[in-house]
Amino acid sequence: MAEMGRLPIRLDRIKGRSCPTILSTWLRQTRKRSLTYRRMIALTGLLIAPFASIAQTFQPSQIGSSDENTLRLNANIVVLSATVLDRHNAPVSGLGKNDFQVYEDGKLEQIKQFSSEDIPVTAGIVVDSSVSMGSKRNDVIAAALAFARVSNPLDQMFVVDFSDRVSFLLPPGMPFTGRKEELQMALSRIKTIGETSLYDGLIAALVHLDQGICDKRVLILISDGGDNVSKHSLAQVIGMAKQSTAIIYAIGIFDDQDVGQNPGVLKRLARETGGEAFFPESSKEIVSICERIARDIRSQYTLAYVPAIAADDGSYRTVEVRASANGRGRLSVRTRAGYSVAPTMPAGAKKAILHDSSN
Q1: What is the pLDDT of residues 85-114, one digit of tens each?
Q2: What 3-state class would DSSP assign to 200?
Q3: What is the overall mean pLDDT for the chain?
Q4: Cα dihedral sign, 264-280-273-236
Q5: Which residues does 58 contact at the CB level (< 8 Å), separation at least 6?
Q6: Among candidates 163, 26, 95, which has minimal Cα distance to 299?
Q7: 61-76: per-residue pLDDT in tens?
Q8: How far apart are CA 276 and CA 334, in angstroms?
Q9: What integer pLDDT is reported at residue 347 of this predicted model?
Q10: Do 101 and 302 meet the contact criterion of CB atoms below 8 Å apart?
């Protein structure tokens, strides 16, 4: 999973430190801000504004494919989260920086920073609460709590559910929490009713992640992949995911009588962001899957590099990470398929965004 470099911090100095401390370190290390980065911050703030009151229902605004409506990322550094697996599909630990090679568009890049330590994450649990999920509600809540139990106590977490509309379930004034009892209360507010706005729910969650201050960002999506009432499209979700730092893990829960299910959507979301898609035979399996996801996040390697060819032209860049080590056999690496950086925003476009956001 390639996470674009929001926080180009010294990854080897953050073990056991809270997200605010990490941010302070970053602020000291990066006193010079690029114009692109400042524009990204300004635009992200505009996108987040509609969700500032998290107790209120999310009302999706139109996010199109035009330059005026795309997130800006700083292409000066790319941060990758990578899961290494052996031939038995078991996680591999104990590798070092020299055991990895990173390629962008087929060209070998120099790894600038490396860490194999467990760092805090900002994590969103995104739950389908449409009427078709009614019989699975209790299992979904138990699974989400299982994920929280295995997570780092310094993680920032939030809960989003979607049916006809999208809602943030933590209390007003609490965008994130690391307290399991608060997560349990939030999950208890899930009520299964109505149709499915999966794409709107993902757009809201991706934007909300930008309020977090941890470098690694994750979404746990529990859904059947169907959508029938969203104002946004799958293409818009994929486009935002490619320009975000989020890893998406998807858990597909299906009903044989549900004609709207779409496992292909869940697979694509996971593949594009370096996550994984799971399709349990029974909803009873979701708890063990969430525990596995939490362990996967904890065991990932983090690598950062500066692209040899810098550009700000909106192009998509493919990413590949390889790993090899003596005595480890054949290793495979799961990471992000690539990323894109939107072109620098002209002054006229910025004024247009400010005008549109005030409506």
Answers
A1: 999 988 999 999 999 999 999 999 999 999
A2: helix
A3: 77
A4: positive
A5: 50, 51, 160, 165, 166, 167, 168, 200, 201, 204
A6: 95
A7: 333 333 332 223 344 7
A8: 9
A9: 42
A10: no
For helices 137-150 and 286-298, the axis angle rounded to 10 degrees is: 20
Rounded CA gap, 279 and 124, in Å?
A: 20
Tokens 């990758």 map to which residue?
A: 80
pLDDT in tens, 167-192: 999 999 999 999 888 998 999 899 88
70 SS3 class: coil
What average pLDDT does the segment 207-232 reach?
92
Could you tell me the two tokens for 146? 């299982």
Domains recognised in the chain with CATH numbers = 2-30+75-117+301-357 (no CATH), 121-298 (3.40.50.410)
Axis crossing angle, helix 263-273 with helix 234-242, rounded to the nearest 10: 20
Give the burial class of 165: count Cβ atoms within 10 A of its Cβ; 0-12 exposed, 13-18 middle, 19 or more buried: middle
CA distance readout (Å), 144 to 46, 160, 321, 349: 30, 12, 30, 40
3-state secondary structure string across 315-335: CEEEEEEEECCCCCCCCEEEC
* Distance separating alpha carbons of residues 70 and 59, to the nearest angstrom: 18
Block residue for tokens 């590099």: 305
Q: Give the gyration radius of the chain's Cα atoms.
A: 19
Does 36 have pLDDT greater than 80? no
Q: What is the pTM of this model?
A: 0.74
* Residue 283, amino acid: S
Q: Give me the pLDDT at residue 6, please.
A: 37
Cβ proximity of 163 and 260 under 8 Å: no
Give me the phi and psi of 124, to 5 degrees please: -115, 135
What backbone torsions phi and psi does residue 153 show, to the nearest 5 degrees?
-65, -15
**208: Cα separation from own chain's centroid:** 10
Please enumerate in sequence order all residues whose Cβ is within 8 A of that of 33, keeping only pairs 6 or more positions apart, or say none. Answer: none
Residue type at 202? L
What tokens appear for 322 in the block?
A: 């390889």
Locate all alpha helices (DSSP H) within the chain, ordered by sequence: 19-29, 35-48, 137-150, 180-188, 198-209, 234-242, 263-273, 286-298, 347-357
